[in-house]
């Protein structure tokens, strides 16, 4: 079990280090949250605080990313009519294209990682990682649930 834990933690740490080195990584996570919200809850207005909560980061980090994304034309920020102190964030067509481009870039990297793997091995890894994530989610965070 220790060897498995070490391997999983090593992979997770390596992915996190690589993600931090990618200049667009923070923007990608914000765009992914907006893309998810657009698909899954299309009638719900998305506020910067919703994005911060989904990413488990401070709102100021999201505010900075939203300014950058707005300047690039990837999101629009409008005043929330229900609370004039708050903004509603909307993904633009340009933002959707940027999200697709960045997601494809990530997929291409994973494809390169597994280029010499047998298809059955990739399928098995996918199934096991999915099962692992479901188990992890079911256990939760005991130290945070107190």
Automatic annotation (TrEMBL):
Domain of life per record: Bacteria
Lineage of origin: Bacteria, Bacillati, Actinomycetota, Actinomycetes, Kitasatosporales
GO molecular function terms noted in the UniProt entry: DNA-binding transcription factor activity
Protein name, per record: HTH marR-type domain-containing protein
Ranges of residues in domain HTH marR-type: 1-134
GO biological process, one term: response to stress
């Amino acid at each position: 079990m220790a060897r498995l834990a070490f391997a999983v933690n090593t992979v997770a740490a390596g992915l996190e280090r690589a993600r931090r080195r990618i200049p667009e990584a923070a923007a990608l996570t914000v765009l992914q949250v907006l893309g998810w919200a657009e698909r899954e809850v299309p009638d719900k207005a998305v506020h910067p605080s919703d994005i911060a909560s989904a990413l488990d980061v401070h709102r100021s980090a999201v505010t900075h990313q939203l300014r950058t994304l707005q300047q690039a034309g990837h999101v629009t920020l409008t005043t929330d009519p229900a609370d004039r102190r708050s903004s509603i964030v909307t993904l633009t067509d340009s933002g959707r294209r940027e999200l697709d481009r960045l997601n494809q870039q990530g997929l291409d990297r994973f494809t390169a990682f597994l280029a010499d793997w047998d298809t059955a091995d990739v399928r098995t890894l996918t199934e096991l990682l999915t099962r692992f994530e479901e188990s992890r989610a079911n256990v939760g965070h005991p130290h945070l649930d107190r």
